[in-house]
Amino acid sequence: MALTGIQIFKLLPKTNCKECGVPTCLAFAMNLASGKAELDACPYVSDEAREQLAEASAPPIRPVAVGKGVREAKTGGETVLYRHEKTFFNPTLFAGIITSDTPADEVEAKLKAWNGLQYERVGLNLRPELAALKDVTGDSVAFAALAKLIAETSEFNLVLMSDKEDVISAAVATAGFKRPLIYAATEANADAFGQIALDNDLPLAVKADSIDGLIALTEKLTGMGVKDLVLDSGSRDLKQCLEDQVALRRAPLKDGNKSLGFPTITFPCEMASNIDMEALVAGMFVAKYGGIVVLSDLTTEVIFPLLLERLNIFTDPQRPMTVTEGIFEIGTPDENSPVMVTTNFALTYFIVSGEIEASKVSSWLLIKDSEGLSVLTAWAAGKFGGDDVGLFVKKCGIMDKIKHTELIIPGYAAAIAGDVEEELPGWTITVGPRESAHLAGFLKSR
Predict the structure, then answer these.
(1) Among residues of the chain, what percentage have pLDDT more than 70?
(2) What pLDDT digit, counting tens, does each position of 302-355 carry?
(3) Those residues with Cβ within 8 angstroms of residue 182's Cβ, 6 or more apart along the chain or in another chain
(4) What is the dihedral of CA 198, 199, 201, 203, to 10 degrees?
(5) d(CA 101, CA 111)
(6) What 8-state DSSP symbol labels residue 181?
């Protein structure tokens, strides 16, 4: 269980040195308890206290990293059952299956196609993360060769899927540098797979026929020293698998069951008869509570909506989605193109930019930081005032890009027009439509 601020305070040096950036150790303890500070910010905490705090502050579900380097992806680390309680932290990872009997040239073509599945939304690059190499022949040499090909030539992290020790060992020898996830340790091979994971510091998936079976396996593997585990309850019946996912989330969060305090892996590819149904099942596991979702293939029509669902679910509900402050080119604007300004609330940006694109009128869109508030809310909160907007226009650099001196402000912010004119003498401040749906017609009629 997480410690309270007072419990953390008792373990701190109580020097009130201020070197952590806050006035007192009590304030620092409260920040630690709420997740607003890191323990490393205190230079005087003892090693014993550090160890106690690290253990106590560890999330009930262990975060597990798959891969290395800039593409390393984490799953798990969750602290709440419902998103609105706080937030979900590590987004569901998506994997596509490649079978070990696939010719190398087809694998290269598939990886190239998968790598093209990248979509920019809200300033983020949305993409699938994993390639799951599935052993279907038992040929360790061929399996290891394909694992090496995927690891060396693609940006995808690996899941190595086989129940044979020699096959997994051969693939780890060629692709272990990428820190792949080994799938899966079972009652029959737990000792061998656990030793491979331990010797190579690799995450290990655990598969059983029931949750009780998972508990026995995780206790055995953690007893060996394997720390990074991923759970598969074994069920491929849709209803039962959903029940298992909920039970596996509740056990560590509500009951304190550390034996089940690990992320899960699910297989919609084995629960559906067609790709459309597979996508629906995958969408369910993004919400409830798949850490890794394995699909039979990665295609735009399947992965794009899943990535958007994931983005929505794993966005902190306490923080508005925002875009970066600055100048955005919509179309191919020139020195005579219209200049508009709005807030950095992501929904506002995408609606406004979409309407400008629909109008076919190339424009400059200025995005001012309003702490993620919409236009009317930002104006009411004093985050989108005339003085601030005028000062932003001066400093953003738009004056170097245009010859005219006209600024279009949102209709809902008409009240700031006078203040903007005072801050920008000589400029014409035009009030645009109140509704974005009328923006295209407004631009065309100018």
Answers:
(1) 98
(2) 999 999 999 999 988 877 888 889 999 999 999 999 999 999 998 899 999 999
(3) 160, 168, 172, 193, 196, 197, 202, 203, 204, 205
(4) -50
(5) 15
(6) E
**Strand pairing class (363-368; 326-330):** antiparallel
How many other CB atoms are there within 10 angstroms of residue 391's CB atom?
15
What CATH number is given for 5-56 in this structure?
1.10.15.40
**Residue in this structure with the two tokens 């899960």, named with its chain if needed:** 264
Q: Domain spanning 326-444 has what CATH number?
A: 3.40.50.11600
The whole-chain average pLDDT of the chain stands at 93
Residue from 394, 372, 392, 393 nearest 381 by CA:
372
Q: Which residues of the chain have pLDDT under 50?
A: 1
Distance CA 111, CA 154 (A): 7
Structure tokens of 75? 């799953």
- Give the whole-angstrom CA distance, residue 263 versus residue 272: 22
User: pTM of the prediction?
Assistant: 0.80
Percentages helix, strand, coil for the chain, rounded to the nearest 5? 45, 15, 35
Model confidence over 125-151: pLDDT tens digits?
999 999 999 999 999 999 999 999 999
Cβ atoms within 10 Å of 383's Cβ, excluding its own: 18
pLDDT of residue 395: 96
CATH number of 64-313: 3.20.20.20
| DSSP structure class, residue 223 | H
Distance, CA of 214 to CA of 259 (rounded, Å): 8
DSSP 340: E
Instruction: Output the pLDDT for position 57.
Output: 65
Domain positions in the chain are 5-56, 64-313, 326-444
> CA 327, 329, 331: angle at the middle one, nearest 5?
165
User: What pLDDT is attached to residue 2?
Assistant: 60
